[in-house]
Amino acid sequence: xxxxxxxxxxxxxxxxxxxxxxxxxxxxxxxxxxxxxxDGHFVPNITIGAPVISCxxxxxxxxxxxxxxxxxxxxxxxxxxxxxxxxxxxxxxATQDASALIDQIHAAGMKAxxxxxxxTPISTVMELGDKMDxxxxxxxxxxFGGQRFMAECMPKVKxxxxxYPNLDIEVDGGIAMENIEAAAKAGANxxxxxxxxxxAQDISGTIESFRTFVNTEQALLEAENKK
Length: 227
Ligand code: DX5
Ligand code: ZN
Fold this sequence. Notes:
GO terms for molecular function: D-ribulose-phosphate 3-epimerase activity; metal ion binding. The chain is α/β, with parallel strands linked by helices. It contains nine helices and eight strands.
């Protein structure tokens, strides 16, 4: 059964003290750190690139979950691998040959993730389920933090989970206490959250609650599958 991994989005942190923000999230129980890479082309915003990841990995030993909101994702694979990225998650909408790109990412020594925007059907990635290490089902339009969770994306998570009981399925965008249960019930086990974690009164408690919701639902799903 895929266990919960909570991946706070550093986009909600203070980029001026990024390494300290990463360490703070790890100290609160984060399993992964979600790094939002935006190129101002695939999405209307620019954030960070491989040089920043490379500086960060000198200060940290954490799993860096890199969400590549970029055009031509094949261009940055080697730079991110050298910089110390752990998982390279590209958008299916940004590539012509997802299968070859997954091979390229694996050859560079990283885990490969494939992301789908809210309006992209899940059928576009369904056949990659045995090849990719993770599927990211976006629950907001990529580009900015602090948007509203789109519950209408949950049937995509459900469909993917039904076909791939062991795949890491990540949800990203607007996840908070009021919708974590819906995401967990649909079958997501990797939880990205920016605003709801960074603005929480009790960050450790929020991370722990997300983890409990996910692990509880995964145990129920597993029991259901064994029937
Ligand atoms: C949006 C990013 C998200 C975002 C999540 O394009 O991919 O990772 O930072 O932030 P919240 O949780 O605030 O929606
Ligand atoms: Zn993201």
